[in-house]
């Protein structure tokens, strides 16, 4: 599925492919990228590939080893961007969610500044062209930025962002530090049972969003994507359906006027679909802060 969807996306014009060690599909994604290079559709330098360091590999000595595992699965020489996937550190091992018998997660204690130094070494080694973070709050970003001897600052922070969680304060903070905000869950997330409350609202059924879609003769999904794009947010949109993958490219074909942007600003409820609640007992749980 991941191979086919990635090929369709590249054929449709997508060049930013976002994956992670945690998703366990890097062999399939790598196969798709290499096949599209082989058939002449793209060159390697046309593709911007992002991977992420799992929480079980925060210890500095594990960082490069994990990236090398990703590269081996991908059969690529480098990634364009490597992110710390989540600021909560977990016990190293093959299990991505190590738990004891009662279901409690087995946490680890790692100074993320040490993890970041190991990320910097991956960049110096040419294994990652750029390095950044994901799911960090502004305080955690500040900690990295103020680290003594900082060599490279995070180029981006990938977080959940959509009209119900527009991240305006975090976006302003990131812009002030010249850090790009990248949005996942831009369409209200895929409704995975293990992650999402079954009573969560359906963003794309929001009456305001639907009325605006009708006005512009676009889909609610495209209105949501365009809203983020016009705020200076980079979007990671996930789909396995060819029709939707192609439709998402239409985001560049229209603009929302300022009055529509203001209406969409009003949809914000600071509603988070992905709360990662099981990690809330860890001191580095990122969502206790306002932003």
TrEMBL record:
Binding, substrate: 85
Record-marked site positions (Lowers pKa of active site Tyr): 52
Keyword entries, A-Z: NADP, Oxidoreductase
Coiled-coil region(s): none
GO molecular function: oxidoreductase activity
PROSITE patterns (alphabetical): ALDOKETO_REDUCTASE_1 (PS00798), ALDOKETO_REDUCTASE_2 (PS00062), ALDOKETO_REDUCTASE_3 (PS00063)
Signal peptide extent: none
Active-site residue numbers: 23 (proton donor)
Start and end residues of each NADP-dependent oxidoreductase domain: 3-268
Flavoprotein as UniProt keyword: no
Keyword NADP: yes
Membrane-traversing stretches: none
Similarity comment: Belongs to the aldo/keto reductase family.
Protein name according to UniProt: Aldo-keto reductase family 1, member C-like
Annotated source species: Nannospalax galili
Upper classification of the organism: Eukaryota, Metazoa, Chordata, Craniata, Vertebrata
């Amino acid at each position: 599925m991941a191979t086919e969807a990635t090929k369709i996306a590249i054929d449709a014009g997508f060049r930013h492919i976002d994956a992670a060690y945690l998703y366990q599909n890097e062999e399939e994604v790598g196969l798709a990228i290499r096949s599209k290079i082989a058939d002449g559709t793209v060159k390697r330098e046309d593709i911007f590939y992002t991977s992420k360091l799992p929480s079980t590999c925060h210890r500095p000595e594990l960082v490069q080893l994990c990236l090398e595992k990703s590269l081996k699965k991908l059969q690529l020489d480098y990634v364009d961007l490597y992110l710390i996937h989540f600021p909560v550190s977990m016990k190293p091992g093959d299990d991505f969610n190590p738990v004891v018998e009662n279901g409690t997660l087995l946490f680890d204690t790692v100074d993320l500044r040490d993890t970041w130094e190991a990320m910097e070494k991956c960049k110096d080694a040419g294994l990652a062209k750029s390095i950044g973070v994901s799911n960090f709050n502004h305080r955690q970003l500040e900690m990295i930025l103020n680290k003594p001897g900082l060599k490279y600052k995070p180029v981006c922070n990938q977080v959940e962002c959509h009209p119900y969680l527009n991240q305006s304060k975090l976006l302003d903070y990131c812009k002030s530090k010249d850090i790009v905000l990248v949005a996942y869950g831009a369409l209200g997330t895929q409704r995975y049972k293990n992650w999402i409350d079954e009573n969560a609202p359906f963003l794309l059924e929001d009456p305001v969003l639907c009325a605006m879609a009708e006005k512009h003769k676009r889909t609610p999904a495209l209105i949501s994507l365009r809203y983020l794009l016009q705020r200076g947010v980079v979007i990671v949109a996930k789909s396995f359906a060819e029709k939707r993958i192609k439709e998402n490219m239409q985001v560049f074909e229209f603009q929302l006027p300022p009055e529509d942007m203001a209406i969409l600003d009003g949809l914000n409820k600071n509603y988070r679909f992905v709360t990662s609640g099981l990690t809330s007992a860890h001191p580095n749980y990122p969502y206790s802060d306002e932003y």
